[in-house]
Design goal:
about 475 residues; alpha/beta; TIM Barrel; M1 Pyruvate Kinase, Domain 3; Pyruvate Kinase, Chain: A, domain 1; six-stranded mixed beta sheet; 17 helices; 21 strands; ATP binding; nucleotide-binding; Pyrv_Knase_C; transferase; pyruvate kinase activity
């Protein structure tokens, strides 16, 4: 029945990518029941019409269960690729010279067409070019407006249209391609909750995307380029959320540098109160196997201990043989970690100091009071979701019930640590606030008769950004009698 779903006990969120293995209404429902809190739709593959069908399936499930569903659309971003070869491929050997040029025609062992003039402008002697996800490495020896001469440092087979990564320079390209502009307009028209921006190199990339979005969705910046690391704090300040995109980071940077960078990105995001997602290869072996490796389990657990807001499945749920099992495994790992008696101490290893605002003071107080009064939940009234994010930043020991009159705010809560969004009418008085808090906590299974809850809101009511009230109430169990909402 709508409204009867009990919020999940765990606080970290599971973001599941949908794809060929998980495109049916039945499988999407099974993923949600297995533990998926949010769904990622990758615009790198498939047509917009197919994505509209997927979104329709998710919204139908939302109506069925009476719970807001969170949808993230991931824009493709620029894809740098070499051209084609006369024989479809060539073999490059260590030490040989190889050129990338703007000449039309098929490539051979000595050169290949590169259809990206921006790379000719960015390349300098000494610049590395990584081909085919870093399997081949070229070092630029000379760069001209229409030709880049290189020497092969790591050889192998190079075939048609393989990708090019340039980790050593900022490529003068916009993060949004014409395809991305089209996909962004489509996603906003579909009413999705989050937009993930790829190929972020500068805070200006994020600012431009936010300008185009105009508040109609949250903007998640994917940190996957070395250039973004150099301006990480500026990017995090502007973005609404952040993703540790470990796949591309691991291609463009030495793999041993990715774990400390992951911790750095999570820490900075938490300090600024931005939801942070850890992604890529978390349960990679479950694409083909029904169980993960022990190393993968440890990897997922580490992200949970670090205090990530969400952990993401990619091909495991989108194209693997065990999509439902992958989500269930992610759910079990997260719940087991959060049940560790040391989890609270570990997740608070990162210090998140409050801003000097009344709203932050209220959020900090709610988290501090929860264990003192043995509260079962924090209930926050919010229009924009700002209060919910402030509370989540403190990583409280109890779940947060987010009551909001804004559908877009309720929908975005699927990426926020410990938050359970509920779309409901706003309140107009202190008495109504207390009564509704009690009813909703009971109705959504977050508290029972005799339990205490902590309520935060803003007075005067209905004024966004004015959180200034904190109140502790005890439930009697009679709050639902004779009331139909």
């Amino acid at each position: 029945m709508p409204g009867q779903f009990t919020p999940r006990a765990r606080k970290v969120r599971v973001l599941a990518t949908l794809g060929p293995a998980s495109s049916s209404p039945e499988m999407i429902r099974r993923l949600w029941l297995a533990g998926a809190d949010a769904f990622r739709i990758n615009m790198s593959h498939g047509a917009q019409a197919d994505k509209a069908t997927l979104i329709g399936h998710i919204r139908a499930l939302e109506r069925e269960v009476g719970r807001p569903m969170t949808i993230l659309v991931d824009l493709q971003g620029p894809k740098l690729r070499v051209g084609q070869f006369a024989e479809g491929r060539t073999e490059l050997t260590v030490g040989q010279d190889f050129a990338l040029d703007r000449a039309q025609g098929a490539g051979d062992r000595d050169h290949v067409h590169l259809p990206h003039p921006e790379l000719f402008a960015a390349a300098r002697p000494g610049t590395r070019l990584l081909l085919d996800d870093g399997k081949l490495v070229l070092r630029v020896t000379e760069a001209e407006p229409d030709r880049i001469d290189t020497r092969v440092e790591v050889g192998g087979t190079l075939s048609n249209n393989k990708g090019v990564n340039v980790p050593d320079v900022v490529v003068p390209m916009a993060a949004l391609t014409p395809k991305d502009h089209s996909d962004l307009a489509f996603a906003l028209d579909q009413g999705v909750d989050w937009i993930a921006l790829s190929f972020v190199q500068r805070p200006e990339d994020v600012a431009e995307a936010k300008r185009l979005i105009g508040g109609r969705a949250g903007l998640l910046a994917k940190i996957e380029k070395p250039a973004a690391i150099h301006r990480l704090t500026e990017i995090v300040e502007i973005a609404d959320a952040v993703m540790v995109a470990r796949g591309d980071l691991g291609v463009e940077l030495p793999p041993e540098t990715v774990p400390p960078l992951q911790k750095q990105i999570v820490e900075i995001s938490r300090r600024y109160g931005r939801p942070v997602v850890v992604a890529t290869q978390m349960l990679e072996s479950m694409i083909k196997a029904p169980v993960p490796t022990r190393a993968e389990v440890s990897d997922v657990a580490t992200a949970v201990y670090d205090g990530a807001d969400a952990i993401m499945l990619s091909a495991e749920s989108a194209a693997g043989d065990y999509p439902e099992e992958s989500v269930a495994m992610m759910d079990r790992i997260a719940r087991t970690v959060e049940a560790d008696p040391m989890f609270g101490a570990r997740v608070h290893f990162t210090e998140t100091r409050p801003d000097l605002t009344t709203a932050d003071a209220v959020a900090e107080a709610a988290t501090a009071m929860a264990p003192t009064v043995s509260a079962r939940a924090i209930v926050c009234f919010t229009a924009s979701g700002s209060t919910a994010r402030r509370i989540a930043r403190t990583r409280p020991p109890v779940p947060t019930l987010v009551l909001t009159p804004e559908a877009r705010t309720a929908g975005r809560m699927g990426l926020v640590w410990g938050a359970h969004g509920v779309l409901t009418k706003d309140v107009g008085s202190f008495e109504e606030m207390v009564a509704k808090s009690k009813r909703m906590a009971l109705r959504h299974g977050l508290a029972e008769a005799g339990d205490r809850i902590i309520v935060t809101a803003g007075v005067p009511f209905g004024i966004p950004g004015a959180t200034n009230v904190i109140h502790v109430v005890r439930l009697t169990g009679n709050e639902l009698k004779g009331y139909d909402e």
